[in-house]
């Protein structure tokens, strides 16, 4: 049996290939359930057994992340789509490219965000509002109040769970770990502080403030920006262990000299994503709709990789010039419109 949208089962994780059956198997117990998630590492299985509620959030987070990734990349050659016939995460991104960096980052951010959100809703045992947000500064007229989103909980769980897959200790797993962390950072960085005024007739002599999560779209936008600025890294030896360092030290951008935790990092240049290549998990752009007049990534010239495009003309009928008659009817004419659509060859 195959459950839920194929999207999830294919694109990133076999981890979740059983996930959408969750509700139907919830009765069979956490232990058996957790065994059903193909591709879970031992540590992930243990975390799952201890905390099955969080697994809902992990799956939800993956779904949110995929949706956002597809939105952010809908006009690009690589559109964050599932790859036919590929099941495992590692296979979908055999190249340590920028796109892989984004995918890991946004997945990690999605899990962090969703777990934090579910925690705020009281749906996760052992998790409550962020109790470190108390006190404040009366002299500056504000104090913490209400229920602040427990981002630390989300970050810690996501760190343990998402990072648990990276056991190889090679350059690629260092890259993945760095991008996982950048994803969690993206959530932390975008937390919003909201305040409410108190005091005589709204004089605002005292404000109470609390922290909330932004909509995931904002985190998607932020990570897309980090994607544009992604840093090319290489593994280096530091004492007895490997770590990542910038491949090319930029000399003229002083502040960019160092690798930051919030950076997305990649090891290899991206392929051009033009041609179908199941080995590399690449769809190719044949059949993609393009924009004839755009010079951007969605323009036929770039999207179709110079292969040209086919034009499909159709006539669309729709209601137009509608008039309202007193009282109460509307009459419309039927207009026909010629619509041209272009598809990559
Ligand atoms: C919740 O916390 C208690 C005490 O720290 C612990 O024994 C229990 O296993 C935790 N439950 C979950 C679901 O993590
Ligand atoms: C991405 O592009 C492929 C073809 O290259 C297409 O089959 C798929 O539907 C697209 N995905 C999305 C989410 O637009
Ligand atoms: C195509 O690109 C042009 C120029 O960027 C833009 O004005 C237009 O809205 C685009 N059309 C569609 C259907 O996206």
From TrEMBL:
Major site of localization recorded for this protein: secreted
Keyword Metal-binding (UniProt): no
GO biological process: canonical Wnt signaling pathway; cell fate commitment; cell morphogenesis; muscle organ development; neuron differentiation; positive regulation of JNK cascade
GO MF annotation terms: cytokine activity; frizzled binding
Gene3D superfamilies: 3.30.2460.20
InterPro entries: Wnt, Wnt_C, Wnt_CS
Subcellular location: Secreted, Extracellular space, Extracellular matrix
Entry keyword set: Developmental protein, Disulfide bond, Extracellular matrix, Glycoprotein, Lipoprotein, Secreted, Wnt signaling pathway
Pfam families xrefs: wnt
Record's function text: Ligand for members of the frizzled family of seven transmembrane receptors.
Family: Belongs to the Wnt family.
Name this polypeptide is given: Protein Wnt
Organism of provenance: Thamnocephalus platyurus
Gene this protein is translated from: Wnt7
